[in-house]
């Protein structure tokens, strides 16, 4: 039934081409094996152009990019930062690492992203108390943009810095533009499981040239311009290497094909599973294009005849990786003291949500296997 050598199907494995090899080879051939060089410059320019941001800094990870974004927006000890609860821990950890604290906000059903109505309520309440949050981190989940316009308006009105965690949303659109390009700063990730990978890396983007110049300085141990080592502030070692940037450049060149492949996965899942009672896919909001980085669905156990976990375990038994939807931050033991606004939607999505294998190299045979196993779990 389950030969142990059956090749594992991963949730979202890397999908690497020839161009990546060429850029990396070039780095070796020209001895640019350093955290600067033509691939870093090229990757920054090409990504900034793709997402429509003025400037970009290539960094060691998306988490490092978020850490710098927060610091450059003035977040420090005692500050409050408002964060989407339904996300990966990296959206919130840098807030705490800067000595600030998180207040979490629930998702809305139409996109599974931050609910702007709840943000409005919180900002109003905070304005009345006379202590506004320093920043808002909006996460664009699973390849879908949050509803950005009302958030930009709220942040402008109350003087709160808008930071976009677009780690999962490269290739998505909001009203024709890329998420990550609307806020004071935006971040992307090129971790191994993202829609494109550099084997690990991240990018900070902003229209503010000074912010990005300062980010580059902080990312290289905050060296002041001097022939010796001079420091008027402290930084980090966060710059991306020129070898890694070569992989990223090659990947970025095929991003549109990767979005198309992931959207095709989604279409096949809908065709193969959409008729089953109790199965509902993450909706595509009217404001933009979902990249379908991951195809996610919810399971109504009563209608379907089995719960989310039964499906996940049936897939795992066949050496297929599927994952529950993110466990919300307000449910995490490490954040049990953090204030939370709402919560019912993200708790329900965690309880019933499942992410299916969604890689851009997923074959038709793989998809058919997965669909057959899920169908086998139905009543
Ligand atoms: C992957 C991810 C990050 C972190 O990116 P790294 O490059 O792995 O540090 C941050 N936020 C979200 C929502 C992510 O999915």
From TrEMBL:
Coiled coil: none annotated. The keyword Cytoplasm does not apply. Keywords: Aminotransferase, Pyridoxal phosphate, Transferase. InterPro entries: DegT/StrS_aminotransferase (IPR000653), PyrdxlP-dep_Trfase (IPR015424), PyrdxlP-dep_Trfase_major (IPR015421), PyrdxlP-dep_Trfase_small (IPR015422). SUPFAM superfamilies: PLP-dependent transferases (SSF53383). The active site is at 194 (proton acceptor). Its cofactor is pyridoxal 5'-phosphate. One of its GO terms (molecular function) is pyridoxal phosphate binding. It comes from the Bacteria. The modification N6-(pyridoxal phosphate)lysine is found at residue 194. This is Pyridoxal phosphate-dependent aminotransferase.
